[in-house]
């Protein structure tokens, strides 16, 4: 296996994991361990002093708040002054972005489901709260790891002289790291691709939940800040720095983008929507019913305020009310028609796994393809481009999943697609744009599984 430590995203990942999927081991089909897979992750639960978290609220903007509290919250939302000092805000942010939300009791199934999808529920992603050292900059003074299983924080790192407090203060960062070995046990050298996708989705989740709570976030792509934030607590070659967001205190760094200038899209009763999100049954075979037109309107609003703007979303619409079937592309908030007509033949050519159609495209409502400017990113950032563009597209992919859930639909991230065929049939810019996500949306049939909500 390639050593994930020194170069977690070698340039040949593009050909091995995105274009050809050659790095997926044959053993995946049987569920057996990948040949040469790393040892099982010994650090299943984080070490360190435990801090209880407040029970997560059932609503992200609690209706039971008194008038006075509501006014204060409205003011905070306008000024961006909500901070993590409020224990219920911190608990809600962690739980609804990375927490354990559903327990599936189906024998032989995957029992635990987090707020963000994960290939075969391997959950390689970790979310940690980094409190910068008093000296300033991004070096950590204390790092608190979120433990979704117990809804707790574990203190995993602190500077000499004691740990700075969790919430109070100015700059706080939520840092996403990934333990590739968890996914590599099944997926071998394909794991970095899946881990990068999931890290992006988790970033999108934190951004969305923070917005629902009235918190400002500034997600960053740069490697220097990320590595500084991860200094001293991410075991080399075991846990890979993936992404970060600065939370609260909007004036702190002065960085801002056009995307951040607008308030992010948040669904009404966001907590209920996030609790309902799921990826559907083992084989994605939805009911062939039309999705409401509002699905596309919400997709436009959500993608227009995604954490990063540098992606495009091609939608192949099969059955959506008041919308002719065909190929559309999202630019800004607008859905532009590229070509009318039944998209199923195109979907069945793109959406293939080893020569077979990956899911039932004949009954989906629509399928989204997220594309990024790969060649430009590689020219600018070399091997780190892989991480960066997966963060960009992953954050948008999670929004698509949440928009589907808001309309009672299921969204399935599915890597069974042929990237070169997608480029050709979607008429992407040759040798520049690459599809990183295929997300099918439909009305899930009642499944054999039975998922219970997890309550802390
Ligand atoms: C990056 C990524 C890739 C995935 N690829 C596939 C895939 O190729 N085929 C598939 O059936 N499901 C795929 N999934 C769906 C996961 O198996 C699903 O999210 C997981 O079972 C968790 O279910 P939940 O989202 O309902 O909690 C993928 C999910 C992610 C996040």
Automatic annotation (TrEMBL):
Gene3D superfamilies: NADH Oxidase. It comes from the Bacteria. Residues 28-81 are annotated as: Disordered. GO terms for molecular function: oxidoreductase activity. Signal peptide: none annotated. PANTHER family: NITROREDUCTASE MJ1384-RELATED. This is Nitroreductase domain-containing protein. It comes from Kitasatospora kifunensis (Streptomyces kifunensis).
């Amino acid at each position: 296996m390639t050593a994930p430590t020194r170069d977690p995203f070698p340039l040949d990942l593009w050909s091995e994991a995105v274009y050809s999927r050659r790095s997926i081991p044959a053993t995946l089909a049987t569920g057996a361990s990948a040949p040469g897979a790393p040892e099982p992750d010994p650090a299943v639960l984080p070490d360190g002093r435990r801090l209880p978290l407040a029970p997560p609220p059932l609503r992200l903007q609690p209706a039971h708040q008194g008038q006075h509290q509501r006014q204060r919250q409205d003011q905070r939302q306008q000024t961006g002054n909500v901070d993590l000092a409020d224990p219920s805000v911190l608990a809600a942010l962690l739980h609804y972005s990375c927490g354990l939300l559903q327990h599936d009791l189906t024998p032989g199934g995957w029992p635990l489901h987090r707020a963000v999808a994960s290939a075969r529920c391997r959950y390689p992603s970790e979310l940690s709260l980094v409190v910068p050292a008093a000296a300033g900059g991004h070096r950590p003074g204390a790092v608190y790891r979120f433990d979704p299983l117990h809804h707790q924080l574990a203190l995993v790192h602190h500077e000499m002289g004691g740990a700075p407090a969790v919430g109070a203060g100015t700059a706080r960062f939520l840092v996403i790291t990934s333990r590739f070995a968890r996914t590599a046990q099944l997926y071998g050298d394909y794991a970095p691709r899946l881990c990068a996708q999931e890290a992006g989705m988790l970033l999108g989740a934190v951004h969305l939940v923070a917005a629902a709570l009235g918190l400002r976030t500034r997600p960053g792509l740069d490697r220097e800040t990320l590595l500084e934030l991860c200094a001293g607590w991410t075991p080399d070659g075991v846990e890979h720095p993936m992404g970060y967001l600065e939370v609260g205190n909007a004036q702190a760094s002065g960085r801002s983008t056009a995307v951040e200038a607008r308030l992010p899209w948040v669904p009404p009763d966001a907590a209920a929507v996030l609790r309902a999100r799921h990826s559907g049954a083992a084989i994605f075979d939805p009911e062939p019913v039309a999705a409401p037109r509002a699905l596309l309107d919400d997709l436009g609003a959500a993608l227009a305020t995604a954490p990063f703007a540098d992606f495009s979303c091609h939608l192949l619409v099969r059955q959506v009310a008041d919308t002719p079937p065909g190929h559309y592309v999202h630019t800004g908030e607008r859905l532009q028609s590229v070509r009318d007509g039944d998209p199923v033949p195109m979907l069945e050519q793109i959406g293939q796994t080893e020569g077979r159609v990956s899911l039932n495209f004949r009954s989906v409502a629509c399928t989204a393809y997220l594309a990024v400017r790969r060649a430009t990113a590689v020219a600018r950032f070399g091997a780190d481009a892989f991480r960066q563009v997966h963060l960009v597209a992953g954050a948008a992919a999670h929004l698509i999943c949440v928009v589907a859930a808001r309309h009672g639909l299921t969204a399935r991230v599915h890597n069974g697609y042929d990237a070169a065929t997608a480029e050709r049939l979607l008429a992407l810019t040759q040798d520049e744009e690459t599809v990183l996500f295929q997300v099918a949306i439909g009305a899930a049939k009642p499944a054999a599984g039975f998922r219970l909500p997890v309550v802390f």
